[in-house]
Structure formats: C-alpha cells, structure tokens
Amino acid sequence: MSDHLKTALSLAASGVPVLPLRRGKVPFGNCRACADNACGGRPNMKTPGPCRCPGVCHAWAAATTDPAVIVSPPWAAAWRRAVCVGYHPGGADLTVVDLDDADAIAWAGATLPATRSVATTRGEHWIYRGAMASRNAVRPGVDIKSTMAYARYLGPGTGTLTDLPDTVRALAVKEPSPVRPAAHAAVVPAGAAGGECPHRTPAYLDRGIAMAEQRITEASSAVHATVYRTFLAVLYRHGRCGCLTDAHITRLFTAAQAKGETARHCADAWTNARTTLGL
C-alpha cells in the first residue's frame, strides 16, 4: 500500500473526504463514459449531479470517506499515479485560507485569529472550523477553499483549530453593482436598530474600527474591493446593535479617502454593504 493511500485512508477515517491528485497537483479527468458531461452529472466539476461513476472522475465532488471506494480497482490506478492526496475541506466542515506568499501571511497574522496552520511550497494554509463558499483571489495572494473546492493535504499542521471568523466569510462576498445615492450624500448615518450594544465594552468596537482602518491603509492593490469588504465586515459585526456612530464611520471614510477613494465612492460602498446585509 502506497504512502498516499495510507494517508487517504487515515484522513477518511477521521471524516475528511479525500481524492488523489495527479501531476500538476490537479484532479484526474473524466473517464470516457463521463467525458463532455455525457453522464449528465457534475458539469465542469462545479456542482454534484446524478452521475454514479465508480472512478475518481469529478474532482472535489468525487472526494469520499468510504474506504471501500478509496481502495476499489477504479481508484487503485489513480493512486498509483497520484503525486499527492487532496481533500474536500467543505465536506469536512473546514475552510482553508490559502496564503500564497510572505505578504499574505503577514496580512493574516495582523488580521485573522490564530488557528491551525500548515506550511506550503510558497506560503501557508490556515485552516478554520466551519464551511463557506470558496473564492479565489479575495485579496493579493489569498484564496479561500471550502465548499466545491479541493486542497492538498500537507500534513497535520500546528496550532489549535478555531472557528471560522466573520472576517474570512466577508472576503468571499462579491461586491454588488453600485447603488447610486442621492447627489448630496456625503455623510451616511450608521442606521442601527438601537438598544443595548451586545459587545458590552467600547474597547471591543474601538479595536474593531482600528483593525478596519489598518486593513484599508495597508491595501496595496484592489483598494475599491478592500474598502467594500472592510465596510461589510464592520457592518456584519456592529451594524445591527446600535453601537456604530457617525464618528466611527468618519474614521473609516477618512482611511479610505487617504488611499485615494472619493467621498462618493465611500458612500456607495457603505450603502452597498448595508444593502447586502439587509440593514
């Protein structure tokens, strides 16, 4: 039994769906029966479908925890050719934040809560408990791999697995088409539901606003997207409890305008974020 197969069986026993990856660290392609979606399932390997092919034909959607499938003859040939073991993070209720370089790792260290990490060829995988939508290039050097995606297994890693933070979830939210505000809009009120703030201490909010300012200030590219996602993250955490004030919003707008954003764009991004969250 190959080392890859032993690793795959061990992961499957712990509830992690696995699949073999071939040269190039990519999944195996469709068999003849499934070529060109002739089987009627899993088009472009993006969504699961009715196909019951016994082979490792459909990338992440073929990943399994069934040891009988993993050692079956159709899979055996793939394991002999495999260069590494892949797994479906979302199928194990996990999310992998793929940090591709030193700058991305530095951003994660300053922005995200510590969790289990695994060294990669060029960077690190930060692994969180909880699944979400996958999305590539959410910021420079950062991809998110969870549902409908696969990741390489690179070892158990170090650190304690922690829950998926809202900051990561917000990264995968696509910015909607701009909602044009009134021409005179320069200051956008917080618009909260009121009531006692569940965060209990002003220090919690101040720390969150300071981190948001830093995230905007340190953006080296995709400033528009960074501003929107930062506004979205702040509103996701604080937008319904009544603790945000115009002074907090002004701090965020000031940081964005220091990066070259206009007051109009700040107002658009804030309005779009509130619309996305239904505020």
| Mean pLDDT score | 83
Strand content: 5-15%
Helix content: 25-40%
**Structure class:** alpha+beta
- Summarize the biggest pleated sheet: 6 strands, mixed
How many beta strands in the DSSP annotation? 10
State the low-pLDDT regions, or none: 179-195
How far apart the termini lie comes to 56 Å
Counted by DSSP, the helix tally is 9
Outline the structure in words.
- This protein has helices spanning 3-13, 67-70, 73-81, 102-111, 166-171, 202-217, 223-238, 246-258, 263-277, and strands at residues 18-22, 26-27, 84-87, 94-99, 116-119, 124-129, 135-139, 142-145, 151-152, 162-163.
- With 279 residues, the chain is of the alpha+beta class.
- The longest helix has 16 residues, at 202-217.
- 34% of the residues are buried.
Features of the shown structure:
279 residues; alpha+beta; six-stranded mixed β-sheet; 9 helices; 36% helix
